[in-house]
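Hey, can you fold this one?
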Amino acid sequence: MHHTLWRAFSYSQTLPQHLLTGRGCLQVVSTHTHACNLLLDSGELIALVGQRHGNGPFHIVVPAAMLANFHTGEPITYKSGMLITAAHYLDFDQAAQWNPHLPACTFPLSAPILALLATASAAYPTSPLFALTNVQNYLQRRAAQGLQSLTVGLQSGNLNRIAEGATDLAGLGSGLTPAGDDFLVGWLAALFIQPAPKPFGIDRAAIGAQVEAAAGATTRLSAAWLQCAARGQFGAAWHALAHALDIGERGLIQQTATHILSTGATSGVDAFGGLLRGLEMLQPLQH
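Sure. Predicted structure:
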């Protein structure tokens, strides 16, 4: 049978090494318009995405036209930087490597910059889950409880309270990436964007470990994002925002913030809400 050869544009440096140099099997677990999620035989998730989604901590960026050729449940083999289906080859061995680790800003964020982020967010409706001025149902109460635990845990250096907050929020909500998970991703982004490697004396890796431990309560895809964020690994949109914040370019900050806020139905808004709340929790460090 004739195989069509496709070449990937880029891939995350954190992809499992055996995918790059070894051989084995994986399976298509879900397909979407701009992405295809694959499960390695080791249990790790890999996503083939078009350039619209771009680089991410577990992404291989491929020509968008290729994504229509995958079907849920389809088995795929891999061998030394090549994915092989019944009719297609994907060569990513020669693709550009991308580093997903989010760099910290050089200086603490100023009050005007924080205000600019809040203004950008105000243009979008608040997620009902985090509309904490009118807490009514179980999900809202659990979200409020989780936020309180994160705040107390972070500012008092209590990892147990952080673990409680992560447990309350992980998997909270519906969809492929529940709102509570999106919020946690943004909250972790705040911890890595701010220059303090040990906010309130707690190592960020220790904080991330508490969130990663809670990731088993959510969907496979959302858990992958949470696990990566816990290790300081984020998608290209977060890198663009971190760069804009670091250079203090207001127009670029507005542009990159809007990019995140407009992601998905509510995912971007929830994640950005987590960023703002995390930066708010870190404010005592700036005085």
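DSSP finds ten helices and ten strands in the chain. Let me know if you want another pass with a different chain boundary.
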